[in-house]
Write a structure and sequence with these properties.
The protein is of the alpha/beta class. It has 18 helices and 12 strands. 46% of the residues lie in helices and 13% in strands. The strands form 2 sheets. Strands 5, 6, 7, 8, 9, 10, 11 and 12 form an 8-stranded mixed sheet that branches. A 4-stranded antiparallel sheet has the order 2-3-1-4. The longest helix is centred in the first third of the chain and has 22 residues.
């Protein structure tokens, strides 16, 4: 494969603007847009920084552009608007030298054959340089603009997390932490931490997840001791709680109903290899290949089925499961720091339909659970409408179901995080809600549902 030709700084900024435009105007995923690019290594870092940063801070940048431009941003040519936002990101959110940010962004207009707009862009960016302090004071008076979130999401978080909303919003704008999950079938967490220390990598433990280690910054996984041999995997500490809350026992039949990419499936098997059967289900055949690859690297085995959890008649053999993990499709508003384009792609109107789908999947999964069994409802949403409200409605309608989250937390020796919602009446504290940023974790929600005999 030939090495890609180096790109100029202006060309990189032009590419970042085009990526931003595709996310905003076409509803494309930034992760997917960047996944298969063949940029030269020396330019890849800058392109990712500019594109992810412009997406992450989009709502604040748009507010700034609104103040600086005599023409409403919505009336600007999409490429011009995107270039202006990329330029403002450099001036307002980075340490890039202002003269370089302005000059290269203006030159990027020429790269995109927008020569007639160079004067406009230059004027906008120069004005931002001159008025940055007063500009920030104006736009940052509004919480949504200051934290670069859509208004609807800020209002919902204020309702659901009244004492933690600003902490969550701040966490959403941080670079995601690099969590490891140690495979204790091979090595203890503390012993693996010693191996990291010997390589000059200082790791800290989690107050919540027993197998988790946090590195201060991301590293090439091939530099991690024993990675090829399956000693360690990459998984956020909040996601690592799933296997402990499910608390599988020897001889049980277990279903991971939305398994891809397979991290939770693998963790369950690492903690309890003596299962009757571990079934990993996912609707996507392509994503199931990632589950297969992770199982292979970690030396684990499971029954893999491509199928829809909401339509068990098409794949289920009728044998009941003693444990079911239902990691439902959701708004992903708890993992915005990993996928900042969620702030642009998700709409308030999505939440009602997502909650309906989640309720339907929960009802279908319940029919596959054996009497006395446990279903763990999991979601990476930060919103009660997709979490506690779904579970409350289910418990109200399902006479043979009860919320056993508190007792499972105590049995497993996990930190009880119910105090995370101190201003929520005790009777409404259903399940376990984890706000983004707590102990470095992603935002997550769990509810342990016990089925009567």
């Amino acid at each position: 494969m030939s090495t890609p030709a180096p790109s100029t700084p202006a060309q990189i900024r032009a590419q970042a603007a085009l990526l931003l435009m595709k996310v905003v105007d076409e509803g494309r995923s930034l992760d997917a847009l960047l996944e298969n690019r063949s940029d030269a290594p020396q330019e890849r870092g800058l392109l990712r920084s500019l594109s992810y940063g412009s997406v992450r801070w989009y709502w604040r940048l748009l507010a700034a552009l609104t103040q600086l431009s005599s023409q409403p941003p919505k009336d600007l040519q999409p490429e011009v608007r995107a270039l202006a936002l990329v330029g403002l990101f450099q001036l307002l959110q980075t340490d890039i030298a202002a003269h370089a940010a302005v000059a290269e962004t203006v030159e990027a207009a020429r790269v995109l054959k927008l020569n007639r707009t160079t004067g406009f862009l230059n004027a906008i960016l120069r004005r931002c340089q001159r008025e940055s302090d007063s500009l920030s004071a104006i736009i940052d008076d509004d919480l949504a603009q200051r934290t670069a979130h859509p208004d609807w999401l800020v209002k919902q978080l204020q309702h659901d997390w009244p004492t933690k909303v600003e902490t969550i919003l701040q966490a959403n704008n941080e670079h995601p932490p690099f969590w490891l999950r140690v495979n204790t079938k091979h090595i203890s967490r503390d012993a693996y931490r010693d191996l990291l220390t010997a390589q000059g990598l200082q790791a800290s433990i989690s107050d919540y997840a027993p197998e988790a280690l946090l590195l201060p910054q991301a590293v090439d996984v091939m530099l991690l001791p024993g990675f090829k041999e399956g000693w360690v995997a990459i998984q956020d500490a909040a996601a690592q709680l799933a296997a402990h809350l499910l608390a599988v026992e020897s001889g049980q039949r277990v279903l991971d109903a939305c398994a891809a990419p397979g991290g939770k499936t693998c963790h369950i098997l690492e903690l309890q290899p003596q299962l009757k059967e571990m079934v990993a289900l996912d609707v996507s055949a392509e994503r199931m290949q990632r589950v297969r690859g992770n199982l292979k690297r970690l030396g684990l085995e499971a029954t893999l089925i491509v199928g829809d959890a909401s339509n068990p008649d098409r794949w289920w053999d009728g044998q009941l499961f003693e444990r079911i993990l239902l990691d439902v499709p959701c708004s992903a508003t708890g993992v915005i720091r990993r996928h900042p384009d969620i702030k642009l792609l998700r709409r308030a109107s999505d939440i009602h339909s997502l909650a309906g789908r989640q309720a339907d999947m929960l009802s279908k999964a319940w029919t596959m659970l054996a009497p006395g069994g446990r279903l763990l409802y999991a979601s990476c949403s930060a919103l009660r409408a997709e979490n506690a409200d779904v579970i409350a409605a289910f418990l109200n309608a399902q006479a043979d179901a009860r919320d056993s989250t508190t007792e499972v937390i105590e049995q497993q020796g996990l930190v009880d995080a119910r105090q995370l919602e101190p201003d929520m009446p005790a009777e409404k504290q259903i399940g376990l809600a984890i706000p983004a940023g707590l102990n470095g974790m992603d935002g997550f929600y769990y509810a342990c549902l016990q089925k009567a005999f």
